[in-house]
Design goal:
Layout (H helix, E strand, L loop, with lengths): L3 H27 L6 H17 L8 H15 L5 E7 L2 E7 L4 H9 L8 H14 L2 E10 L4 E9 L1
Antiparallel strand pairs: 1-2, 2-4, 3-4
Helix pairs in contact: 1-4, 2-5, 3-5
Length: 158
């Protein structure tokens, strides 16, 4: 019989395989039109988090909003081990360390599929749009394999 730790690792592998398979299948079927799901899913996830925790993500600037998203993902949901934010002009970089969907993101990129199932990217995009009334265009995700850090880059649009 598997230990609890072994079960958690197997669950995580299974979860990453499911996310990868679903995202690749949608992309293979619909092409770039599959990316339209990002906004809806991001908003739904954000609303569910707010509802279940009895709070509202708010702020007057990207720094405040994304800091709260980082806190939720790490402290309340355990989706990542750490995160940091860098803002320079209209460019925002959200760096997530030890994300639970690391493997799915890596596999999607290897399959030449945009990693549109990235939870931090979906939530950040939805929160910026809903709370600031500005669009944050997803630019890219790069992975630092050695440190297991994803750098999610956005560009704020006026």
């Amino acid at each position: 019989m598997a230990t609890m730790e072994e079960k958690k690792l197997r669950q995580l592998r299974l979860f990453n395989n499911l996310v990868f398979g679903f995202a690749k299948g949608m992309y293979d079927l619909f092409g770039d039109a599959a990316l339209a799901t990002v906004d809806t899913i991001g908003e739904d996830v954000l609303e569910e988090m707010e509802h279940s925790l009895g709070l509202e993500v708010q702020g007057e600037n990207p720094q405040n909003i994304l800091t709260e998203i980082e806190r939720l993902l790490i402290d309340e949901y355990g989706m990542a081990k750490g995160a940091r934010l860098a803002i320079s002009g209209d460019t925002i970089n959200l760096m997530c360390e030890g994300c639970l969907l690391w493997q799915a993101t890596q596999d999607l990129q290897a399959a030449a599929v945009p990693p549109y199932t990235c939870v931090p990217m979906m939530m950040a995009s939805a929160a910026l749009r809903k709370r600031l009334g500005q669009k944050a265009k997803f630019v890219s995700i790069s992975q630092d394999m050695g440190n297991r850090v994803c750098d999610i880059e956005f560009r704020m649009l006026n």
